[in-house]
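User: Show me a protein chain along with its predicted structure.
Assistant: Here is one chain, sequence first, then structure tokens.
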Amino acid sequence: MDRETRALAEKHFRGLGARLPDGVCGPPGRVDFIEKPDAFSYADFFKGYLLPNVPCVFSSAFTEGWGSRKHWVTPDGKPDLDYLLRKYGDMVVPVANCGVQEYNANPKEHMPLREYISYWKEYIQGNYSSPKGCLYLKDWHLCRDSLRDTSVEDVYSLPVYFSSDWLNEYWDAINVDDYRFIYMGPTGTWSPFHADIFRSFSWSVNICGRKKWLLFPPGQEEALRDCHGSLPYDVTSPTLLDVRLHPACARCSPPLEVTQEAGEMLFVPSGWHHQVHNLEDTISINHNWVNGCNLAPMWHFLQQELHAVQREISEWRDAMPDWHHHCQVIMKSCTGINYKEFYHFLKVIAERRILTLAKEMGAGTVGSVGDSRLGTQQAAFDVSRITEVLASLVANRDFQRVDTSTFSLQPE
């Protein structure tokens, strides 16, 4: 990040104050297509897409040198199932059944990759049909699960545009988890309507195959709720035309539709609900990520999640000892994070950015922290965003009820 971009970003957030960015009334008329890597800088992406929170597609030129595009694909552009079988066949992968609805998602099971590849081959031979259903390998943590055998560089190179990635930086620092995923499945596999975890950004690259994305900007999903307040499972379902079931649906703008080709990379902004269909046998790599630009929406989302838990068990408030503590426990089990862990997340990223700034000022010898490509202007911007959200967190009445006595640094 350069000084000009940082100044623009900080002015943008000062203008918002404590407010969240306004939702987009309707989708933009088109999604920009970024063709040439040499002509598109990090500042271009930050100012044109990350800050205004709008999607874009990068051409296949941006992923041309990736190992997965060389090794996972046959000469005719199909998934090289035999290579994947030889390389990763014994690894256990999560598989969803696209033909079965479980709440607003699909039930998952785990199986060895060799079993899934055997199913996939049979599915193709059966004219894309199987008594086992339509199975989709989703959310496979390949890089985490094969750390000893496979480096990330053997599979892909993280584009600089997405390198301010606090979510994966944090999970790497505590060595617990990550939000880097592989998806693969035959024609017809799909992901139901959803917004990404924690209101994170995401990026998705088709290693091979084609996807159709249906994208709705923040706020548009409210018009899609049914008469019970629930979001739809499938936005292509004819039931959405029933005004008794979906009384506000007519007010929703049509989705922004994107067909993503092989090698192309899609940026999905924070809070954009979407539904995704594989138009061909497809493999993709996806990351969820958070940084200073969507930290406030993440914090707002966590407050909403806690309030939902509190409403759900409100009748036990007076009878249950440590009711507030139990709400935090339930929130973590449902959401994956609670206020205590969110504080620790902010602390870890802040400490790493402060080390970067200390190194720049010559305050001793400090190792490389985070992604060195983004520089000290990015670190200063990050600290300013953490400062604002941390102040809001510390002032929050529910956070003040959290036992912070064991924290290595006290919130104040």
